[in-house]
Design brief:
Rossmann fold; globular; one-carbon metabolism; single chain; Adenosylhomocysteinase; disordered N terminus; 3 domains; seven-stranded parallel β-sheet; binds nicotinamide-adenine-dinucleotide; Adenosylhomocyst_ase-like_sf; adenosylhomocysteinase activity; alpha/beta; Adenosylhomocysteinase-like
Amino acid sequence: MSLAGSTTVARPPRSAAAEETRTEHKPADERCQHKTPLGTKTVEGAESIRKNSGTDQNDDENEDRPTDGDSGRPVGQTAINNDAAFDFAYTGVDQVTDMREQSGTQAMAYAQEHMPILHQLMGQVASRHDLSGTSIAVCLILEPKTAVLLRELAQTGARVGVCCESGAVDQRVADQLKTEGILVQADASWNEEQARQGALDLLDQLQPNLIIDDGASFARLASRERPDLAARLVGVAEETTSGVRAFEAMEAAGALTYPVIAVNDSQMKTGFDNAHGTGESCVTTMQEILGSHCFAGTRLTVIGYGPVGEGFAKRVRALGAQVTVCDSDPRAALKAVFDGFPARNINQALPQADMAISATGVYHTIALEHMRAMRPGALLAVIGGIANEIALDQLPDFHPVNGRKIRSISVPDGPELTLLAEGDGVNYTAGGGNPIEIMDLSFAVQAAALAYLLDQRGELTPGVHRLPESTDRHIASLALAARGYQASQPLADHSHSWQVTRFDHEH
Ligand SMILES: NC(=O)c1ccc[n+]([C@@H]2O[C@H](COP(=O)([O-])OP(=O)(O)OC[C@H]3O[C@@H](n4cnc5c(N)ncnc54)[C@H](O)[C@@H]3O)[C@@H](O)[C@H]2O)c1
């Protein structure tokens, strides 16, 4: 599964009163307006930083210059997004709160405040489509960011329900959503059979037209257990790499009876969620569990060098790890080499490793014989996220416990090893998942996928489809604007003509 959890250490929304208290003794010139990626805030002490950096002199020089009426910026001063460049807010350590310790409503309110792109996209969907007769089932990790998506969907007038495996349920969120009219078939205390039954109950109670899925688990269940319902689906929007692979396998086998939008394959999803958000949140979650210096000097093997593995490998290298990469695709292995990592066969790499990290999303990536060859005490973790990416199902004494972050495992005829997050995706089971701002982009693509399925209703063949590039560009433009940036606009359209070559001198 790819998804989310709340940003691990998140700052609560600041009330106007709190802001007032924080700044009351400072004269206005000691504060500097900076903008976070998503809003303008105030930073104290910025004046002294500017003095030390020598920018005062420039300020004095600028005082006499005529200013641009709109921005107040001296005419002639560079206009390279000055506002955005100066609009950063450091709210101070005293403001940092772990949202996992807040109530469900507080955590959801915080997430909602930081997901403006999803909000805009859903507004656009609702203005184009009447969703009052539509039923949407969502099968995603149930945490505050997913709750924002569910709320946004429900606000369009659609009937909305959610299911989720128990290990990925934030109970305070599940409880809160039930009070808001969302059909919740998920509970942190359920066993596997109860979670499966909950998913079937959601299909029966909601009779969804649309599904948002993670890992293709829910839609595949529908195909197997409720084939008539599956055949009537308008379509499915799939969040993850592993889910897209599963749907492609279904399509190849002639078993796919509905259109699937590969949300994962949109650049605004994979290029940010997989490449940035997952690497970042897996690193910070591991630091929370193991200590902030856990990577320094560590011999670490990353298995799988797709966007997830690459994002993680580059981050831990920066934190001092000696990273080796294993990828079964020679192209990915070569890319790793060009990025500066030795690429090795897993059989060679794992016996040397202090930490082995699976980033493939492929069953039994770390097999029993691999574990047998590892050093005693070496650590195993998954940052991809399908069941048994590490072959834990072959360990007779392994019984997972929801929420356990670290444990020892005994490998038959092998060493004792250390396992994080019971072999599930470390960031969303032992940490807060991908950052909110990243999930804002991923869920905006989900919203666009639903709109596309509705726009193309009856036109799309059963099979895996991708969103047009224009969707990515639209979402990117909104996300840039929310941060105070923009793409460049050429003065004229100089697109290439195939008829013009270097031999055409008249051109
Ligand atoms: N934890 C999260 O929050 C999160 C977020 C996004 C994606 N994911 C998941 O992470 C996984 C990886 O995502 P991605 O986008 O990088 O996928 P990808 O398919 O682009 O990359 C996976 C790489 O692993 C390699 N690989 C596959 N099996 C292998 C094996 N047995 N040994 C060595 N290499 C092998 C493939 O050749 C490929 O290069 C997927 O399952 C995806 O769903 C997790």
